[in-house]
């Protein structure tokens, strides 16, 4: 990329080529609301200008996944996360543990985990350890207590981050999901439960925002004291 080139004008989008220099992380393609062609064109542009590291597209519809796979050589598709990456992942610095309450939370947890990897940290997945079977979480404590940051994903009443926050002092970002019956109000109950947690050291992102949690956690892990 030329030192003076900050934006690529694609007509329908002004692609930010300077974000990695400003923030340490390149621009990411949010696929929802974009056509499959737009997703492919933005991914290709980012990869051509910054081939040394992976670029990420999230929230992809079926047609976008199909077109990315067909037209972008080397693209990797994560069907669970509904996301795609193009280019090499960076060398991991620090460790993020992604803890998911239930199997229904898997798409958000997968988006968070992939985002962490694209943004330069190692990931450890701990799945299906919700509070309905709290013994599973207690048995897994040794698998997350040594992490540099935690992402805790839960729907329903959103209790899991509070419990995890009471078991460890590792920085924690909570992700409410839209999983639950009617009174969960599409994740609002979980969001409010996490915001009102009595466990200290918890930050909260928006409903189903695995991407935002992944960026936050990766930055924490990258800046933590090296442990490995």
What does this structure look like?
The chain is an alpha/beta fold. It folds into two domains: 7-86, no CATH class; 95-223, 3-Layer(aba) Sandwich (Rossmann fold), CATH 3.40.50. 35% of the residues lie in helices and 19% in strands. It has helices at 19-23, 36-49, 62-71, 106-118, 134-139, 141-144, 160-165, 188-195, 210-223; strands at 7-9, 14-16, 29-30, 55-58, 76-78, 83-86, 95-100, 122-126, 149-154, 172-176, 202-204. A five-stranded parallel β-sheet has the order 8-7-9-10-11. A four-stranded mixed β-sheet has the order 3-4-6-5, with helices on both faces. Helix 8 (188-195) links the parallel strand 10 and strand 11 (202-204). One of its GO terms (molecular function) is hydrolase activity. This is Nickel pincer cofactor biosynthesis protein LarB. Residues 94-226 form the PurE domain.
